[in-house]
Amino acid sequence: MSSNHSGVVAHQFDDAVQQRETANLGMWAFLITEVMMFGGLFASYGYYRWKFHDAFVEGSNHLDYLLGATNTGVLICSSFTMALAVQAAQAGKRKSTIVFLLLTMVLGLAFLGIKAVEYTEKYEHHLIPGHGFQVASAHPNLVELFFAFYFTMTGLHALHMIIGLVVLSILVSMAWRNRFSTDYYSPVENAGIYWHFVDIVWIFLFPFLYLIGRS
Amino acid sequence: MSNGGSTSQHNGAGENYLTAGYGLKSWLLTTDHKRIAILYLITISIFFALGGLFAVLIRLELLTPAGDLFSSDTYNKLFTMHGLVMIFFFLIPSIPAVVLLGGVDTGWTFYAPYSEAYSNTAVGLTAIGVFITGFSSILTGLNFIVTIHKMRAPGLTWFRLPLFVWAHYATSLIMLLGTPVVAISILLVFLERVFGIGIFDPALGGDPVLFQHLFWFYSHPAVYIMILPSMGVISEIITCFSRKRIFGYSFIAFSSLAIAILGFLVWGHHMFVSSQSIYAGMVFSILTMMVAIPSAVKVFNWTATMYKGTIIYQTPMLYVFGFLGLFTVGGLTGLFLGTLGLDVHVHDTYFVVAHFHYIMVGGAIMGYLGGLHYWWPKITGRMYSEAWAKLSAVIIFIGFNLTFFPQFLVGYLGMPRRYHVYPPEFQIYHVLSTAGASVLAVGYLFPLVYLLWSLAYGEKAGPNPWQAKGLEWTIPSPPPTYNFDVTPVVTEEAYDYESMPREAQFVIEP
Amino acid sequence: MLKDIPFLPQAASAMAGRVDLLYLFLIAVSVFFFVLVATLVFIFAIRYRKREGGADPTPIHGSLGLELLWTIIPFCLSMVMFGWGAVLYFNMFSPPEDAQNIYVVGKQWMWKIQHPEGNREIDELHVPLGASVRLIMTSEDVIHSFYVPAFRMKMDVVPGRYTSTWFKATKIGKYHLFCAEYCGTKHSEMVGSVYVMDPVEYEDWLNRSTTATKSMAEVGGELFTQLGCQTCHFEQSGGRGPSLHNLYDTPVRLMSGETVKADDGYLRQAILDPAGQVVEGYLPIMPTYKTQVDEEDVLKLIAYIKSLALPQKMSAHPAEENQ
User: Fold this and answer.
1) What is the dihedral sign for C-alpha B473, B477, B481, B484?
2) Could you report the per-residue pLDDT of B102-131, keeping only the tens digit for each?
3) Which of A194, B55, B202, C85 has its CA 20 to 30 A from that of A124?
4) In whole angstroms, how far apart are CA B143 and each of B149, B175, B479?
5) Could you give the ipTM of this predicted complex?
6) Is A142 in contact with B142 (Cβ distance < 8 A)?
């Protein structure tokens, strides 16, 4: 390792390689817990969708699939720019790292913006579960159940996006201060893995909530 | 708490981790795993005392069939807090104290819809507490797994790892896979309470049985989180005090993993009478029988380890004897509960209460106390009084059996759990149980006294009072902050006691 | 004195003896293994204790043969336990054809029981000796569990659905009834008594009771008219809703294309959430009756609908018919 960056290897590690592998494994293990958490939600959702099929299809039809599809596109693009950022960091290119990280953040914010538009629409149509919920349906309770899942699942996903954005902004500031090098880029790499994961969760959310059984 | 450290300065052995700093900040913000462990030890000991206090109050109430000591509400809060504190703050230890602020009465299982719509207590606050606890246990598991995979000393191959480490590896897998699921279910309950939506409430279309599925998916494996580390401790101690390598190393190591994995497939055995399909019940029953096998394999291997060894009756070994007896009873009675036709009768009775106390108190706490006595000289650099320690081990064993064995019998007679008042014909067993609890409480007080005493007045332990194998025994007690001056290289299998010189075996006086 | 301390609970159902036998078998297996482990630990601890002149510890890595032995034997034994337990479990939840129904509604903190003959009781259940009784249960609030130790019988009582179990009482007497699922403040006071009576006395009790001037089906029929159900559900088809005559226990084709059996659970759902499972050929116009009827009323309405079935297939007094 170059003496310039010897400070980045924490005392409990022998060298930079061990440190990076350790950090990577930690991120993957963390993502497994995330899979289990979203898995619990998806399983419950799937169970109710099977049990109350008609009501859930009705709920799906209240969603704006165009906005959902746009958001899917936005997220896939953001994953691409994130991958470029990781590559730039590996190659030690400070400037392009910063540029691609910023681009990813812009796309992430765009996603959240579109999501906010969708949420507002739902609010205006009284589709937020709770006391103000109103829907013209034969089984309003079950449609409300659908929306409870819609908001819990997309809300939890959005929370992950927000956390991702915070992490990215920290990375930008680190890159700005020239903290990364060809020896030390695992924060960018791990943030990338996280970002792709959040992306993949959406890839599952979109068809499950918006598309299946849609008329 | 740093008394032991401060006196050790006199021996001129240089700084150790206890003397590296004295300020409150140097403890609370430490990154030294040994200091963190001390913080854990103190915290969980306080919680254990608190949980124990609740238990004593519960036992006092049950001394008579009428509910004359507390109101029903108080009683319900007591057993809920006893369960929550012991499980989430002692057995799956961690930090926050939210539960204690408001009081909850849902039972530690939070069954919906009671927890959602009918309980007026601080369920929301508790849910947040459990959520934070869950996060801390995920991070702990993550830390262990990554460390075990990537940060072993050179030469320390997977099959040279101490079995304690294998046990922690299995435990961490469970924490990693299970905790998120319970976190999400508790989050859903929380959302339901706050927004009044019906994910589990049948009045609004939800399904309360789904909550049970999600809850037990975590909480059954969580039982193994509690017992597996203790099993690891037992493996360490039994080899040391038999002066002999462990019997069937790889079988013990893999049985831990088998328990962790099978543990995820048996949650439905908590729900044999909850209206799930009887065929689902059969699948869960047969899988439950499977979990019993690796546990049995462990017990037989431990027993066989003693064969042709040199058995030394030090305190930690007494706890091993206790563990073997109590865990065997706990495990065997688990079969009663996994057997479908029988479980219908004993489900949610005191039989269940007795069973899991045999596993968690008899198993997990025996392991905890055994480990505490085994590593105490390493942690503090001091020896405790062997005579007092042995006496209290015996008292705890007797008190424990007197407390919980009668509960098997009264459970089969039909005494339901979580009952504040009960029919008079059950009283005789409750009286026995309460008597046992008082003996047990005294037994638990002893170590508190003589261990603290040893901090100031105990003999100096030296680096390896038990002539034990394992890297931690090659460095001074208490260890310096950075543990090893030079990264050690491991060249032999774990527990190679037989190759030690014969004189070394006789350093320890029983 | 020891004689006075009970070890097994009273056995008052056909199932009780069979469960006890399984229990004793498991105790025997457990005692065997416990004694085995305890004896070995004890012998090793004495025989190989540290002493002057004792032999050096012998290095033994393990033994594949032994590992297999103590894997396979417990496995086989546990499969015996599983099989035995599964057979019992299956029987416990398969009521015989001729079982008579009794309806249970759990509520914080009481048990409300209705007999088809119209008798109603709270925290008490009277049953005839030797007859198979099937309990159909639901809850108005949280999960409860209906537990009669003397019958070795327990079943959760879950809001929003019917659960059922059955028993055949074999001994006259009074037995405990407990709620076994924690249900709030007075959980431990949600208890009652089960009275097993001589069939003749039971008949007498049914007639003597002041709560029963009309059978459940009759009360259900009155409720049916009161709620105006007959304005849509005619005796013949042609109403806005399907005819309910001869409906019970027959297959129904739904709008969604599925076919379901018109059992208790389906009928309950159809009254409380009619839009959920609309019958093919009808419009989803029926409103929910959730706010107008409680669980006990629903049970009465179902009893009435049952009584509209073919007389040879169903009757308000199925028990009498089979005697």
Assistant:
1) negative
2) 345 555 555 555 555 555 555 666 666 666
3) B202
4) 10, 11, 21
5) 0.86
6) no
